[in-house]
Amino acid sequence: MRYIEVTINTPKEEIDLRCEQMAAMGAGGFVIENEDDFKDFLERNHQYWDYVDESLESQFRGVSRVKFYLSDDEEGRTQLEQIRAENIRAVVDLTDFKDSTGAYMPNAKIYVDGVTEVGAIGKYPISVEIRFSPSSMSSARMSARVP
């Protein structure tokens, strides 16, 4: 059987969360790669070699990612389409902040457009800064960043 390898780069402190999210979407068989684990593996197994090629070390420099595999068939390709970035959107209700200015960290709801059996797990705080323009108090400028 053939498989599609999917790689998701993520901060190392979010690896468990990414695995949970992908498992909820039907993925399994995770391979976790990060620089710390690679260095730890080298140190614990030093008795088996005296030299590690620099190109191998460079492949793990700064790495923090989760890999998983989907079947290379219609079902696997359907699952893969469900997790593309353009299908994902974050929505924040700013009703409680309508008369406010400043920086806030409200929770966003995550939606995967076009599919009903896919969702996101957990809380997703985003950084929102609300500033009113001096020329028009009826408009607000907002910027958002997902930490």
List its traits.
147 residues; alpha+beta; 2 domains; flat; 3-stranded antiparallel β-sheet; disordered C terminus; 9 strands
Fraction of helical residues = 10-25%
Q: Quickly count the domains.
A: 2
Low-confidence stretches: 136-147
Mean pLDDT: 74
Strand content is 35-45%
Measured distance between first and last alpha carbons: 38 Å
In sequence order, what are the helices and strands, one letter per element? EHEHHEHEEEEEE
Looking across the biggest beta sheet, what order are the strands in?
1-3-2
Instruction: State Rg.
Output: 21 Å
Number of helices: 4
The quaternary structure here is single chain
Main sheet: strands, sense, barrel: 3 strands, antiparallel
Q: In one word, what is the shape?
A: flat
Number of strands: 9
Going by helix content, strand content and strand pairing, the class is alpha+beta
Please describe the topology of this protein.
Blueprint (H helix, E strand, L loop, with lengths): L2 E7 L5 H10 L3 E7 H10 L9 H7 L3 E8 L2 H9 L5 E4 L10 E3 L2 E6 L11 E2 L1 E7 L2 E10 L2
Antiparallel strand pairs: 1-3, 2-3, 4-6, 5-8, 6-7, 8-9
Task: Describe this protein's structure.
The chain has 147 residues and is α+β, with helices and mostly antiparallel strands. The protein has two domains: 1-83, no CATH class; 86-147, no CATH class. It is 24% helix and 37% strand. The strands form three sheets. The protein has a three-stranded antiparallel sheet with strand order 1-3-2. It has a three-stranded antiparallel sheet with strand order 4-6-7, with no helix packed on it. A three-stranded antiparallel sheet has the order 5-8-9, with no helix packed on it. β8 (127-133) and β9 (136-145) form a beta hairpin. The longest helix has 10 residues, at 15-24. Residues 136-147 have low confidence and may be disordered.
